[in-house]
Design a protein that fits this description.
The protein is 70% helix and 0% strand. It has 5 helices and no strands. The chain has helices spanning 5-26, 35-44, 52-78, 84-108, 122-145. The longest helix has 27 residues, at 52-78.
Length: 154
């Protein structure tokens, strides 16, 4: 049984919103899927430099996730002739694996996220960058497989 396109859109939007809100609440107000929010917050706080590195890493890893997924999907479509459903299954498995890795990082480093300087903490940056990479992967996968779908990682 396969989900309808609308159900897939809703599922991806829920995942993107959940990861972003969880990141904002637990990762020192760092957006993990709303890259625009990070860019606004980084430029607004650039005079203090607090959090600029973390927000830059999240934006870079989101872009890397999107780039990696776009290249992978194009290679699978052209050279291997995979169907969109097979590509979507692979992307879902990759995203779930990377989100699980981010969850594991969050659990391992959970005690270092609670101090006042958490946004400059390398462990927080690793965790947030991992989640952001997964959101970049999701963004590119949804746009490639469902071209008319609105963004699920705003």
């Amino acid at each position: 049984v396969w989900l309808l396109d609308e159900d897939c859109h809703n599922m991806f939007a829920f995942i993107g919103g959940f990861v972003d809100s969880g990141g904002y609440v637990k990762l020192a107000e760092l957006f993990t899927s709303s890259i625009t929010g990070n860019l606004v917050a980084a430029t607004a706080s650039i005079y203090t430099v607090y959090g600029v590195v973390a927000r830059a890493f999240v934006a870079i890893f989101f872009a890397l996730g999107s780039f990696f997924t776009g290249v992978m999907i194009m290679k699978l479509k052209i050279h291997r002739e995979w169907s969109p459903k097979a590509i979507l299954r692979l992307c879902l498995a990759l995203e779930a694996s990377i989100l699980f890795l981010g969850l594991a990082f969050g659990y391992i480093f959970r005690n270092s996220f609670d101090d006042d300087a958490a946004l400059n903490n390398p462990e927080l940056i690793v965790c947030a960058s991992t989640l952001s990479f997964a959101m970049g992967l999701q963004s590119a996968a949804v746009k490639e497989i469902f071209p008319d779908c609105p963004s699920t990682t705003v």
